[in-house]
Structure formats: C-alpha cells, structure tokens
Amino acid sequence: MPIFGIGLYFALAIFCAIHAVRHRQPLYWLFILFAFPLLGSLVYFFAIYLPNSRLQRNALKAVSAAARAIDPQREVREARLLYDETPTAQNRMRLATALLDVGDAPGAAAEYEACLTGPFAADPEIRLGAARAFVECQRFAEALHLLQPLRQERPDYRPEPVALLFARAHAGCKQAAETRAEFEAAEARFGTYEVKAEYAIWAYGIGDATTASRLQAELDKIAARWNPLTRELNEVSQSRLQTARDLAVRQGEVARA
C-alpha cells in the first residue's frame, strides 16, 4: 500500500511536469515537483494548472454571465467608480474590459488606447484587450499591429484567444490566405467549439460551403453533448454562427435566382 501511495505521488508529479514543459513554465518547477512530489504537485496544481484550466474559465464565465444577466451595467459602474477614485492602469484596464463585455467597443478601445500610451503599454493583457476592442471596432490593421509583437515576444501567452484575434483581424483586412492559415492552425492545436465556430462563420462569409459544412457537422456533434450550462456559456457563439449560416443560405438563394 505505501508503494502504491508513493507511485501515485510521482504519477501526479509527472503529470504536472509534463504540463510545465508543454506550457513552457520555468524549469525550477521540475526540481520542485520531483524534490517534493506531493507538496510540489499540489502547489503547481493550484498556482499554475487550475488558473489556466478550462474548468475554472468555464466556472468564471458562468458566474460572470449570471451577474451580467441580473445587472448588465453593474461591472461598468463599479469599474468606472474605482477608476475615478484611483486612476491606475490596472483600474483603467478593468473599465475597458467591462465596456467591451457590454458591447461598447468604441468606449473600450478609447480606454485601452490610453493604457497603450502609459508605462504598461507592453503588458500582454493590455495588448490583447486592445486588440480585441480594435477587432470589434473593425480597426483590423491596428489589431494586427498589436498582435504581431505580442506573439513574437510571448508565444505562450493565451495562444488560443491570440490565434482567433489574428484570424479575425486578417479576415477584416481581406487577407484570405493568412486567415485560413490561422484558423487551420488554431483548429489543429485547440479544436475547441469557439475555434471551429469562428472558422465556420468566416467560411460562411466567403462562400466556402465545403469548409463550412464540415465544421457545422462537427459543431452540431459537440453541441449535442452539452448540458444547459455549457449551452448558455456558448450562446453568443451559437447566435453568431446561426446568423452567418442564415445569411449564407439567403445569399445562395439569391445567387440561384
């Protein structure tokens, strides 16, 4: 029995070590994990693995979605009040994120632009948020200008959102080859519903029926396994996907006429 316990400790340490190597964590984690397999694994799990896991992201999304449904402007009010009291870059970034989450992309872009002129302009979270706001405002070239150095300097930083923003920005700039390359790479690497949905939305928009049909079939299979909470979390993506699909059908009917 003690041998089994020791084996379990080292199995957990190996799991954490593989995660650390694949996600380019500092190498001192390997020493910690194998020098203190149980304690090190627990620290790594709660400090590194869990904050970046899809499980926690989904839980946070669910809480945020519920709060927004009850009072959509609450976070904006609180963020604005906090920034007025303490006008730091961190509080301004919180305000920009809140504005973006309620659909005020121009307001969010203005706040992010102010952050980009300050001492924290190179902060990856600010760059990513600003790029997201620029894409929503259809300022696609400016978004690419932010995303390119972010990927070069921090290739491990939130690679899936960065890839999707790259793809959408290229699409907005009418760069079809670059857009397809980004979507194909993101689908191969992540394969999430969001990636496939964004790829399908673009495919519908350019009239690529073959790609859109393949992705739609895969998306339908994924959605069929969802529980009500997961369906609610992906409601925005589903709505955008359905809109793109309906538009493609109408355009096809016009073309046939």
TrEMBL record:
<protein>
    <recommendedName>
        <fullName>Tetratricopeptide repeat protein</fullName>
    </recommendedName>
</protein>
<keyword id="KW-1133">Transmembrane helix</keyword>
<feature type="transmembrane region" description="Helical">
    <location>
        <begin position="30"/>
        <end position="50"/>
    </location>
</feature>
<keyword id="KW-0472">Membrane</keyword>
<dbReference type="InterPro" id="IPR014562">
    <property type="entry name" value="UCP030959_TPR_rpt-cont"/>
</dbReference>
<keyword id="KW-0812">Transmembrane</keyword>
<dbReference type="Pfam" id="PF14559">
    <property type="entry name" value="TPR_19"/>
</dbReference>
